[in-house]
Amino acid sequence: MYKKIIHFIVSFFFCSGIFSQISFEASVSKNRLGINERLRVVFEMNENGDNFIPPNFNGFRIIGGPNQSVSNSWINGKRTFSKKLTYFLAPKIKGNLIIGQAQVEINGEVYKTSPVNIEITEAVANASKDSNNADYIADNNIHLVAEVSNQNPYLNEAFTVVYKLYYSDQVGISNVNELDRPKYPDFWSHVIKIPRLEAKQGLYKGSPYKYVTWHKTVLYPQKTGKLTIAPLTLNVSVDIPTNRRDFFGNRLYQQVPKVITAGQRIINVKDLPEKGKPKNFSGAVGDFDLNVSMNKTELNASESFQAKINVSGRGNLKLFKLPEINVPGSLEVYEPEYNENVKTNLKGMQGDISNIYTIVPQNQGKFPIPSVEFSFFDPITEDYVFLKSEKFIINVLESPDYINPQGTFNHNSKKLKSTTINESKFNFIKLETDLEPVFRNIFWGSNMFNFILLLPFLLLIVFGSVVLIYKKRNQDKSLNRVIRANKLARKYLISAKKTIGEKDLFYEALERALHNFLKAKLNIETTDLNKEKIRGLLTNKSIDKETAQLFVTLLKDCELARYSPSTSVRIQEDYNNAVNAISRIDKQI
Predict the structure, then answer these.
(1) For 228, 487, 508, 524, which has the most beta carbons within 10 A of its beta carbon?
(2) pTM, entire model
(3) Given this chain, do its domains 22-124 and 478-588 carry the same CATH topology?
(4) CA 169 → CA 166, 211, 256, distances in Å?
(5) What is the pLDDT of residue 242?
């Protein structure tokens, strides 16, 4: 009896082990397909597993997945479980390819699928001709178009590229993501953010379609000739309606992954005409206005005034240099403060840029400031436009260099005129005195006593103040220059930190900060020096070679950054190096 029971138990567990055998398999939609077709790969297991590791899919590009589905049911007391992981692949090369082993862990055991051989042939035409084929429906009802506003622009003339995704009412789209975003190495580019994707009604080749604006970019060509814009490539899940319906009578859809591209575009960039090009042309293209203003035209020599050169309008405002101001030698000009108020939309850059110069007069007199000249090329009229500002006269009323006998400032007085003393005017002064003895001691503790006691200290304070004023008058010019340069260095360093996400603005501000820092610490004009001379000056100031080399390298990086790509990591590294170099030089000086 006991033997029968034991035999029954062993048989039960043995059968249970047979019926609960674990399986993990890979299946494909087809083993032979054209290079323009898509392959569906399904990894299925009959028990829930963890730590799934897919194969490498060498020779394929993943265009969809992994999509996971789980089925768990009980029928007549019997449990059926299925878990599927589905990938959609696009072949990249022709030939015999192998989908390697996938791996999963089930109940502590590792299971692997068998490799699958796939043959990739030439592109096939049957998929694009079968009207009932899902790929055919998707190909003919969804399109990606790059709309270029001007395919023949001038150098530095703005144009736009707008990418639109068109799809018909017969299909739906979902899970759209970019595979390849276009790059613009030969253009200055600005991407216009789209806050929300909206489907609108439009026409594609004369037929009604819905479309979504996916990408907007404003471009300014920096080279002439035929330039290529790389294509935008999207991975889209297309929902294709089928003839099947669900329990409630709703149509069921089949989801087909598609890779669509807008194709590359060729832009023929024209060079600016040489005929009529002004000598002072700085590369401005668009429609601009010039405004030059002074905050005051009459002042004392000890004061300063500001001159502002402002260019406003529409065009490549960030891509050219403002004209400089020319002043007489008796006016000392400091490095300008650059201000920018530019917005970019589909029409290009619009706004204004300006340089604000701080100018300090050295002598008394009237000083003429000549006109500022500015020219630009108007692509609409296809001609150059020349602008010229008005002239200014700066009237300096007083000069602190010399003082006349009346106590007023006078630059024209080379020396003080001596006055003739008329002795008869002093005859009223009594030269002989009658002294009388003082019988009472009323001096000690009196106001006169206290005054005489404090008089040496008062004279010492007055003498010290006169000496300080004299020294300050002699050092005021260099001191003001150092203070202004130091402030500008801190200001541009802060500005560089705020524009880390924008390469051109960052390196322009960083370069200004480095130059102004040297101007403040070494009292030199670095704009007239090359990098080797700057390194020599730093070495002469007992700056170690490593720090001097780091500073010169930063200056070189700032000059090269505008013409070479820079990642956000590189920009952050340059900023940290600049802060480190400035701190080390400041400590060593």
Answers:
(1) 508
(2) 0.51
(3) no
(4) 10, 10, 16
(5) 76
